[in-house]
């Protein structure tokens, strides 16, 4: 049997008698995001709620999405950097300081951390996209292990005193692979900021 060809609106349909079968409907592949573990492997090597080293850091995926959403991400990053620069001035070296309570201070670049909602997040750090290096710093000061709750060593014993760990809130640009349309956001994290000395009443 001869084939019949119909042309309508630029579409050519070839009808092969009763043997014609319509093509299968096209189905768009379902997007399946790569979920990060609720508790990352790096947390197993530390008692802190942040990781400075992470062998499973998704650097390739982060850079890919940074390139894809360049302008929008840069706008968020500039907002975070401006705030961070005012607080730590992007310092990496410490200067001599005197403390009433023994403590350890450092300027760090966390790769993962627990946010104020108790969720581990991937922090955009130590990666580069279109010539922009993404670096987010935080100043951390922690009471020495045997200092918290003890009397302040530089305060006279005639005063009631106690060393207390204080925290401060930081805002970081984070990567969330479960958000297909824009996998970046600014979230809040609480990190140790000082080992403060509480001084109470005078007593003989």
Automatic annotation (TrEMBL):
> GO molecular function terms here?
growth factor activity; Toll binding
Give a GO cellular-component term. Answer: extracellular region
Domain Spaetzle intervals = 99-199
Region forming the signal peptide: 1-17
GO-annotated biological processes: central nervous system formation; innate immune response
What keywords tag this UniProt record? Disulfide bond, Glycoprotein, Signal
Q: Does the keyword Membrane apply?
A: no
The residues forming a coiled coil are: none
UniProt-listed InterPro entries: Cystine-knot_cytokine (IPR029034), Spaetzle (IPR032104), Spz/Toll_ligand-like (IPR052444)
Entry keyword Glycoprotein: yes
UniProt name for this protein: Spaetzle domain-containing protein
């Amino acid at each position: 049997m001869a084939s019949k060809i119909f042309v309508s609106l630029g579409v050519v349909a070839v009808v092969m008698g009763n043997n014609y079968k319509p093509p299968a409907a096209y189905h768009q592949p379902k997007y399946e995001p790569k979920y990060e573990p609720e508790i990352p492997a790096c947390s197993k090597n530390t008692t802190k709620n942040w990781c400075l080293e992470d062998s499973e850091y998704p650097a390739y995926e982060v850079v890919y999405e940074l390139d894809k959403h360049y302008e929008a991400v840069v706008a968020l990053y500039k907002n975070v950097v401006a705030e961070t620069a005012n607080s730590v001035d992007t310092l990496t070296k410490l200067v001599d300081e005197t403390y009433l309570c023994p403590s350890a201070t450092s300027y760090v670049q966390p790769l993962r951390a627990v946010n104020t909602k108790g969720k581990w997040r991937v922090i955009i750090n130590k990666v580069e996209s279109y010539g922009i290096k993404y670096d987010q710093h935080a100043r951390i000061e922690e009471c020495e292990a045997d200092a918290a709750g003890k009397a302040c060593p530089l305060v006279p014993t005639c005063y009631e005193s106690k060393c207390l760990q204080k925290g401060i809130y930081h805002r970081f640009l984070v990567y969330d692979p479960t958000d297909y349309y824009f996998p970046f956001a600014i979230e809040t994290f609480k990190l140790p900021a000082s080992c403060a000395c509480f001084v109470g009443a005078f007593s003989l």
